[in-house]
């Protein structure tokens, strides 16, 4: 039995006209005069939301990083466990990107808890059409479907094996343990239906292992 675990966005900010020195350090292109910043209490949901923003506005993800140790050990109350910077040509464009981020985080992307235990959770999310950010990370074509699968390290390894055997999918990116937040997982690609089958198999494998963690 699982329950949904949504992230929150502790901070959402816009810099309408970035200082030239800061823009150079961030690596902005000449047309990218505005940036939006946001933090998320769950990093993988933050990455998913950043990718969604690239589909809904003319922005690029110029920075996206997980913070070590997770949100429980954040550097401040607004830090969460992830921060992203989205760059675009105008304040209106980056604000539109943030609107997309908020919708994704509040209503679509979520972790699932094992038996209601928030300390034991996993991510089995299907992206029907990847944006510029995750497609580049996965090395697939923009618009390709992805299964974004994350869990604690042993559960993730068992789950990825099950997912790859259950559907006609390819493992594009393996997040070897430990990540900054001590999870593991991967990005898989295939048809949307194949990605969904892979995500379902991943979920079931995680739940099966949680029910009998020492049975081999």
How would you describe this structure in keywords?
216 residues, alpha+beta, 2 domains, four-stranded antiparallel beta sheet, Alpha-Beta Plaits, globular
Can you walk through the features of this model?
It comes from Domibacillus enclensis. GO terms for molecular function: structural molecule activity. Its main location: other. It is found in: Bacterial microcompartment. With 216 residues, this protein is an alpha+beta fold. It folds into 2 domains: 7-110, BMC (bacterial microcompartment) domain (Alpha-Beta Plaits, 2-Layer Sandwich); 114-211, 2-Layer Sandwich (Alpha-Beta Plaits), CATH 3.30.70. The chain is 37% helix and 30% strand. It is built from 6 helices and 10 strands. It has helices spanning 20-26, 43-56, 91-107, 132-138, 153-166, 192-211; strands at residues 2-5, 12-15, 34-40, 60-66, 82-88, 111-114, 117-127, 145-151, 170-175, 184-190. The strands form 2 sheets. The protein has a 6-stranded antiparallel beta sheet with strand order 1-6-7-8-10-9, with helices on both faces. A 4-stranded antiparallel beta sheet has the order 2-3-5-4, with helices on one face. α2 (43-56) packs across α3 (91-107) and α5 packs across α6 (192-211). It is globular, with a radius of gyration of 17 Å. The mean pLDDT is 96.
Shape: globular
Class of secondary structure makeup? alpha+beta
Element string (H = helix, E = strand): EEHEHEEHEEHEHEEH
Radius of gyration: 17 Å
Distance between the termini: 22 Å
The helix fraction, in percent, is 25-40%
Mind summarizing the main beta sheet?
6 strands, antiparallel
CATH topology of the largest domain: Alpha-Beta Plaits
Counting DSSP H or I runs of 4 or more residues, the number of helices is 6
Q: How are strands sequenced across the largest beta sheet?
A: 1-6-7-8-10-9
Stretches where pLDDT is under 50 for at least 5 consecutive residues are none
Number of distinct beta strands: 10
> What's the CATH superfamily of the largest domain, by name?
BMC (bacterial microcompartment) domain
Q: Mind telling me the CATH class of the largest domain?
A: Alpha Beta
CATH architecture of the largest domain: 2-Layer Sandwich
Number of domains: 2
Kindly report the average pLDDT value. 96
- Note the beta-strand portion: 25-35%
């Amino acid at each position: 039995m699982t329950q949904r675990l949504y992230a929150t966005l502790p901070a959402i900010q816009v810099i309408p006209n970035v200082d030239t020195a800061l823009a150079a350090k961030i690596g902005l292109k000449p047309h990218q005069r505005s940036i939006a910043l946001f933090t998320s209490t769950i990093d993988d949901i933050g990455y998913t939301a950043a990718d969604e923003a690239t589909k809904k506005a003319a922005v690029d993800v110029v920075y996206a990083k997980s913070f070590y140790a997770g949100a429980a050990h954040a550097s401040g109350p607004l830090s969460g466990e992830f921060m992203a910077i989205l760059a675009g040509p105008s304040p209106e464009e980056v604000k539109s990107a943030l609107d997309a981020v908020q919708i994704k985080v509040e209503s679509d992307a979520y972790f699932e808890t094992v038996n209601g235990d928030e300390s034991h959770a996993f991510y089995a999310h299907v992206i029907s059409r990847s944006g510029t950010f995750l497609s580049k990370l996965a090395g697939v074509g923009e618009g390709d479907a992805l299964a974004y699968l994350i869990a604690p390290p042993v559960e993730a390894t068992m789950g990825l094996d099950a997912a790859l055997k259950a559907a006609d999918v390819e493992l594009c990116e393996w997040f070897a343990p430990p990540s900054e937040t001590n999870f593991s997982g991967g990005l898989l690609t295939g048809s949307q239906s194949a990605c969904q089958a892979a995500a379902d198999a991943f979920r079931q494998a995680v739940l099966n292992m949680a029910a009998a963690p020492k049975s081999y």
